[in-house]
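User: Some background: our group keeps a shared notebook of sequences we're curious about, and every so often someone picks one and asks for a predicted structure to add to the entry. Today it's my turn. The entry only has the sequence so far, pasted here. Could you supply the structure so I can complete it?
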Amino acid sequence: MKIIFCSTGADFAKIKSFGYDVCAGYFTPADMDQMASLGLGCLLQYDQWPPPAHPSIIGYYLKDEPDVRKISIEDQEAEINRYRAFTDLPLYVAMGEQVERKCSLNYDCYMMDIYINNKLSSFQNYMSARMAPHFAKHLYPGKKLIPIIGLYDNTAEFSYSEEQFGFGDFFRSMFRTDDFGTYFWAGDGVTCWGINDRPQYQEWARIFNSTSLKCSWIYEQMMIAVTWVFLKINPLLGKYRVTIP
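Assistant: Of course. Here's the predicted structure to add to the notebook entry:
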């Protein structure tokens, strides 16, 4: 899967031309009809009940960063149970970096988003991208994990940088899958900009969508050992406990 986060009314033909095959977001039935005609899958996020059913829907995107938004695991599981009674399709969640489990274990796919942040040093950014995916493998054992690459910028902490491509490439290489997502398609042109707004992002999107890059088995096992030690020792450090920035 090559997922692009977008919204209703997006230029789906243009999205398809960049090599994406799944659109994630809030869409109308007319949007999904157009996706189906183009061979695009839909990962649907919906805020009303019941959500629509449509042949293009490959899964439901239930929560966006419930860890950051402090949505309790109990509330997450209530929503999961409601969807389980409605559909057999996979249920997705997006999350940030964690050193303790803040998402339910009952989703089918966990999408991890770590974007290069101008408030952190290069070392902090790359350490976060290196360690967090392997923490997630401990916290959500046996679950499908895929990266979300940041191809956007805004007027806050995520500013445009030539380093974004290399950082996204690095982050993607921490996972044992060629599936990935990209955030996001289009901004408002005033406070944020996405792939549709910047030719450089379009070039990078084409490269990401045409290349294969996954974590080697040997490196993955090495990092799993390192993160296991960290997660076991870290809670014992008391006031000196380390958290990933």
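Suggested note for the entry: The domain at 2-240 is CATH 3.20.20.80 (TIM Barrel). The mean pLDDT is 94.
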